[in-house]
Amino acid sequence: MNANAQDNVFTKLAAEHAAWEERRKHALNHGIRALERLVNVAKGCAGQSHYVRLFLLGLYNGPEWNFDMTNLRALDAELQADATEVLKLDWYGGCEIYKHLPNGDAVFSQFWQDERGDEG
To answer: What is this structure's pTM?
Structure first.
């Protein structure tokens, strides 16, 4: 590989890394607030709460909690937008989704119990 081609490869890699870092910053800045809003909804007992819990549990443990994406249609536009931001947080956030919350494992474990009908 000649020097010009090598420079082009490094330039492209640097640009891709910079773009990834921007997506990561966006995900952290917007996704954590969106996650907090979804968690507050999921703690409720309205119809949307069930679907938000299932969405969050799908991120927490996908093999155990397969989430039908058409269930997002049951959410209002603001919650759909928050779900999109939380997906970005899951992709770019650098850790498991529940780790972005204080006591996140306990929060998600409670959602698990709520959806399974466990008493604890």
So the answer is: 0.85
